[in-house]
Structure formats: C-alpha cells, structure tokens
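Entries read chain and fold; for instance:
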Amino acid sequence: MSRKPSDYTTQETDARIFKNPVLNFLGKTHISIPLIIFFGAGVALSSYAFLVYHLSLISIISYFICGLLFFTLIEYLMHRFLYHLPSVYEEGRIAYALHGLHHKYPKDKKLLVMPPVMSVLLASLVLGINYLIFGENGLAFTGGFLFGYAAYLSVHFIVHAFKPPKNLFKELWVNHSIHHYQDDEKAFGVSSPLWDYVFGTMPNKKQLRK
C-alpha cells in the first residue's frame, strides 16, 4: 500500500496507544531505557557464559552471531506478517495498536519502542526457550538475539529522528523511508536488508525515483 509523506503527522503527537491513561503512559518509552537494558543484557549474558560456565570464546562468539542473525529473521517475519495484517490501518484493531499507529505518526519518538516491562518479559521467555534448546550456549545465543534487538531499536530511532546520515546507515534510512512513504509492502528489514534480498521484498529504487 503506497502512502504519501503528507498523509502523516511528522512531529511528536498526543496519539494514544491505549484508552486507559495508565496503560497509555506505560506504553510510551524514551529510547535510552530499552537500549541500556538490551545492549547491557546482550553483553552480560555472553560474559556470564564465559566467566561462570567457562565456555570457549569461539563457542560464545559463534552462538552470539547466530542469535544476532536469528533476530534479524524474526524482525523481518514479524514486520511483514504480523505488523502488516490487513487491519493495520483500522483504528481499534490489534494490528493498528502494534504498528498502524506508528505508520500514521512515524515521527513520534515516543511510539518507536515496546514498553520495557513487556519487552523484558518476552526476553525472559526467549532466554528460557533458548536455554532448553541449546543448554549453556543458549546464554550467548540469547545475548546475540537481545543485542540484535537493541541494534534494531537504534537503527529505527536514527531513521525516524534524524536526517539521512552520510555513513553506512544511509541505505537503511532510505529503505525504511521507502517502506513508510512510498510502498509499505517492501523493505520490511529495518536493522538489515538481508532478508528483503532473500525473500524478494527489496524495493526497486530506480523505478521508485521515476
């Protein structure tokens, strides 16, 4: 679905995620809080695996990278198939609360992250599942996964809060801007374009320029 930039408010707004004032307050979070939590958790889990379980550096680095790559896949799949359900632009629907509101107000910095309480609970669940699957190596795998989540939050914030950077983030900035303002059925990868290339959803930028 194509959208024009003029269709959206481009400043911070009083947009409400929940009708309940308490839930609505908790649903808006400053970017620094989850970044501290999840960058820290990624490093802490990997360090714990090394210092307490005495896992080898090669093993920790390998599982960390696998967890990081796995996060980029989960990010892509959730963005494409969960956040973009047909009801994404219908107010009052779950998809609208999850992602449609962000598409309506893409420059509202308070709508860029999941509430920390919810994200920490989900992260704890992910850690438990990974430990059951990988044993002690699940610590490093989860560390990479959570580090990937924090990296995603960083890139997403940079894209929406700042002008196009003159570095490696520019390509990510352009891709996500296309997703918001020109074709929301393309460029689902935020922190990495890898899976858009794999699954054929990378936008044709030359055609879009025309």
Q: What stands out?
A: Confidence is low (pLDDT under 50) at residues 1-11. Residues 121 and 127 are 10 Å apart (CA to CA). Residues 5-163 form one domain.
